[in-house]
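Hey L., structure's done. Input below.
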Amino acid sequence: MGLRDILTGRRQVKGPAPDRLFAISTAYVTLQTEHQISPAGAAAIVFQALATSEFEAALREMEEVVKSAGGDTGTSVSTQDDSYGYRWMILRSPEGAPSIEDLAVGVNAVAGSIETAGHGERLLCAVFAFIDAQRQRVYFIYNYKRGYWYPFVPANGTAAAAGGPDGAPGGQRSTERELQIKAQMADELPIEPELERWFPLWGIPI
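Output:
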């Protein structure tokens, strides 16, 4: 069972929980000050786009809103589609000035627009990128269908390996490191309690 199965409705799941998404806006302080895991200045929201003019128009309007809102903070927005039919809307903070708060606001605006358009079931996850003291990428993934976060730590050199959001094979993950982070952040973030739902996300473009 992968994220794609959840997205297509094979399991009964929770709806999005915006308040839980914003938990990252305070949790990052503990990550940075106590565990030397710092924001990388990028986040993304992943969803399954519809090949309709109405959906594309809604996305263009929403992207313009996020770009306009990011004008004051310097947050940039871009999109790309992967080979699995998922669209990534990527938000980046200005170079040298990562802001988890601004990224979370932008991601939530995208999710809200998709929900308002009546397509909330197409939301897959949000991904926030961090870097630890060993310069290793650490990702925090928010599963919209479950309303929970979980850490994803690709082993060195595998972050860009082939694969897709449904958990297709694409590399090696550092499970021990992920469990360590879970123990460190259990009081700060609503962590997914079922480890089998910590789906790997290969080919993350941030």
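The radius of gyration is 16 Å. The first helix runs from residue 3 to 7.

-- N.
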